[in-house]
């Protein structure tokens, strides 16, 4: 007679296995994705399956009945002690006895998918570089003089099919107590990067370790550092935080930091020191917020622009300040967090830095490319990642171009008189009535508009503290639409605009959005200087985009994706009214949140994405804005709101 046929769902993989084969063994044989941390010992319960056609011998029998029907004592005991959900069985214990269809639930799949918030975003497939493995190690023997580590490695090779295994020194020190405490059974966190030849043991626990492993996805911007603490098992984000980059005190934008390092002996080293300290603090505070310990954080993936990249690594960025803008190293980097002196995470934690595309187009642009994959787009897609240094990508499946543009920090709320970074209390949305010229607004952390009843009570905890990047973009665009601002960017007087909110400010005017000064709060006034800062920033952004369009030989794009720093969700309509981006049908302009950070999270959750972005980074053609003669011309024309010459037909509708 024939061997039983098993079909695994949802993969549909099928094949015949001899009667009595364990489900986990059958899954491995047929290439089915079934998880296991304990290596099939009935301890971890990660291998659970449920039969949807045919059945295994029943659980809940007496020992004698069980023995007769082939039921496994290990699984029996697991069910008694820990309890299995109805219909669920341990795949490493249950045996195939006849034809069956076996469902592998999502939590038992190694490569489970993480759904991303944006509707059109690709799901992340979990396949982290660091995974747990339980292993039983032979006891030492006077007649067999091998070390405990060597016997552990042999056991890992035998049970987990790994080849080379290494461990850093601090791990060696933990090894012997863990083996003895665990009765010669331990769980190790095994790490293997996409280019590593060996597996590396990052941590070790006695017996079976039930805890979770975490990683950090970090977007290290010139103005803002955003970090997401991510569960390496299911990709969920446990805590997020954004802080100011402490290097700001050495210069607001990239070039001023490069010149600080050129003018000051030891300046680069000082900037290196403060950013490493900030990352260590950030990691520690995220761990605290999520109620875990720094030891649970085993990896960090970092995206950043080339200057931040070099300063983090302790490399003087001086070459990035002058043509030909040579990078010290452009490939992705895998290293120990300890090499950079980072704390707040595990002693043996690993770091991964995405590759840089060119001297001005960094690992942050690589992160955006990984999150948005413009190289797979059917439509010609323009992606702008708004920050102090904007990363701009244009492309489709026929090729991708990239440049960066020095927009300055205005879009992150810096250089704005009432500006602040995105945090509770900051104005993030603004509307101005075209008739009455009266504003209403929303602040971060509150769902009500400022003219809704109960608004003042709802924001009592923080008050209104200032205006963030997305808020100032909306404010300026709304002022233009309400006729408070002309195409040159000049704010009209009270007589010209018909509202007392237009206040004289020396020889210019400012528009008052909110006056909380009576209660000791903020006075949020948009000044002529603020408008100038936004005009400069948006002109740089637009000019960069236009330069890529010239290079590609097109006058318009099919689709625009707006990405931004932490917390910034830029409104497509306002971005277009302002002329930050070229004209496109409004429904084709979308906001992607922190795409660079998402790219970091993808590379954290899926180790093969690291190889993917390396290959893609090599294919992206970079365009150098600093030496392109047309950049200046585009920049000057883009100073008007929305633009001096380029048409915006989609704004008319
Ligand atoms: Fe761990 Fe089955 S593989 S319980």
From TrEMBL:
- Which stretches make up the 2Fe-2S ferredoxin-type domain? 4-108
Q: Which Pfam families match?
A: RACo_C_ter (PF14574), RACo_linker (PF17650), Raco_middle (PF17651)
What SUPFAM superfamilies does this protein map onto?
2Fe-2S ferredoxin-like (SSF54292)
Q: Kindly give the InterPro entries that the UniProt entry links to this protein.
A: 2Fe-2S_ferredoxin-like_sf (IPR036010), 2Fe-2S_ferredoxin-type (IPR001041), Beta-grasp_dom_sf (IPR012675), Corrinoid_activation_enz (IPR052911), Raco-like_middle (IPR041414), Raco-like_middle_sf (IPR042259), RACo_C (IPR027980), RACo_linker (IPR040506)
Gene Ontology MF terms: iron-sulfur cluster binding
Q: Which PROSITE patterns match?
A: 2FE2S_FER_2
- Tell me which PANTHER family the record gives: IRON-SULFUR CLUSTER PROTEIN, IRON-SULFUR CLUSTER-BINDING PROTEIN-RELATED
Q: What is this protein called?
A: DUF4445 domain-containing protein
| Species whose genome carries this gene | Pseudoroseicyclus tamaricis
